[in-house]
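Supplementary Text 2. Reproducibility record for the structural model of the 376-residue chain.

All settings were left at their defaults, and a single model was retained for analysis rather than an ensemble. We include the record here because the model underlies the residue-level annotations in Supplementary Table 4.
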Amino acid sequence: MPDTLIHPKPKFAPLKNDRLLRALRFEPVDITPVWMMRQAGRYLPEYQETRAKAGDFLSLCKDTDKATEVTLQPLRRFDLDAAILFSDILTIPDAMGLGLSFEQGEGPKFKYTVRTQSDFEQLPKLDVNDSLGYVMRAVTNIRKELNGSVPLFGFSGSPWTLATYMIEGGSSKDYRYTKEMLYSKPEFLHQILNHVATAVTDYLDAQIVAGAQIIQIFDSWGGALAHREFIEFSHNYNKHIVAELKQRHPQIPVVLFTKGGGLWLDVQVDSQADCLGLDWTMPLDKARQVLIEEQRKLTKKYKKIQRNKSIQGNLDPAVLYGSPSSIRQNVKTMLDDAYATGEKTGYIANLGHGITQWVKPENAKVFIDAVHEYKI
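Retained model, structure tokens:
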């Protein structure tokens, strides 16, 4: 029998630090909450040691105890306001049998691609608690080990982002095969996206049942699309997933992060996501103003007051290569922008993308401490 998640939901310790959840709900906070995308990763020597023991990256992801260990490592070093499940956005296509591997210095690679109808028809409909049960076991174990100290993020890649990997066979700079399909066979691309969106929805639902308290959708390659195509091939799928999750778990907040997506805040605001993540290309004060104006329009359109959306981000990860004084100054500038419209909550500090392997851990600490020291 497969080792699947046992229902009902496991019981966990009460949450002690709910600062980040309060900010998501636009409730008062004492200090700005902060976490880092990819906070459990190669910049930490203890992570490198654990990964070496695991043998390879995928083995690390699939080992409950080791995945729990690396999730907790940054919380032992830093005063973070959230943990994020240690896993990878490519778990879904891996579970679909595409043969995921990670080549040293080259990133993820798939043995098989999905470029023809025959390729597509071989994709299974996932039972996520079976084929991805190791993720749910990690979520539950991490949540227990956190013992209520901070909330736990679960996550997935977006349908568009996952589809690009499945079609290209790995990372891409020009998305040749995916964009060729988009413009020559859009109906076929929608077939793939619909299939992946169903898997993403079920996957995130299962993570919530297993213990995730917040969900983030990583639309890492959404910014590669043209503006109309972004709506059709990325945003509409993300919007549908968020709506479905809200129907199943209305109390669980969802963060939607589109790298390079600052230009489409006016589009993304018309979703049920509680928070929109930003990279370093979009000023936070401008983002706040755009959201306020768009929410005003939606209130008028639907004749119902629209709930405020919080924002997350957006420090350039490269700032952490600088001196401590430079990091503190950049943090101050970022937070000045975040609170420029007069809001004293509704903001989560983060990097504009994942922390890189070359950052010194002490510089990450400077960033986190500078956020907490800032007077709102």
